[in-house]
Amino acid sequence: MSGWDQYITNLTSQGITHAGIFGADGSRWAASPNFPNIDNIRDELPKAFSSSPSGILVNGEKYIFIRSAENFAILRKSADGMVVVKLNQAYIVSIGVNQKPEMIIGATSKMGEYLKNCGF
């Protein structure tokens, strides 16, 4: 178990179905079991923070961009929500199956703020 796994456990213990922390280069720092595949993750995650975001492909299905702030983006696919938090060196991705994004943004943003303050 890596040191990053404790952050994933924290998020999933708060009801988030899948959680992952990925380096800006697309490397996987930690992820919950069965975390869905994000094709070409290095290119997909920054799309949520581009000037004209449209969505992110997860397991070949598109999560549509809903809204963003300076360091987080909210996306949705049917009844599933996704929150991406941008850190200095990485991204936190939380996916809630049958959960609205608003239900998972609090925990994900709080963790993102903590890790960002730690220099990540």
Automatic annotation (TrEMBL):
<dbReference type="Pfam" id="PF00235">
    <property type="entry name" value="Profilin"/>
</dbReference>
<dbReference type="InterPro" id="IPR048278">
    <property type="entry name" value="PFN"/>
</dbReference>
<dbReference type="GO" id="GO:0003785">
    <property type="term" value="F:actin monomer binding"/>
</dbReference>
<comment type="similarity">
    <text>Belongs to the profilin family.</text>
</comment>
<keyword id="KW-0206">Cytoskeleton</keyword>
<keyword id="KW-0963">Cytoplasm</keyword>
<dbReference type="GO" id="GO:0005938">
    <property type="term" value="C:cell cortex"/>
</dbReference>
<dbReference type="InterPro" id="IPR036140">
    <property type="entry name" value="PFN_sf"/>
</dbReference>
<keyword id="KW-0009">Actin-binding</keyword>
<protein>
    <recommendedName>
        <fullName>Profilin</fullName>
    </recommendedName>
</protein>
<comment type="subunit">
    <text>Occurs in many kinds of cells as a complex with monomeric actin in a 1:1 ratio.</text>
</comment>
<dbReference type="GO" id="GO:0005856">
    <property type="term" value="C:cytoskeleton"/>
</dbReference>
<dbReference type="InterPro" id="IPR005455">
    <property type="entry name" value="PFN_euk"/>
</dbReference>
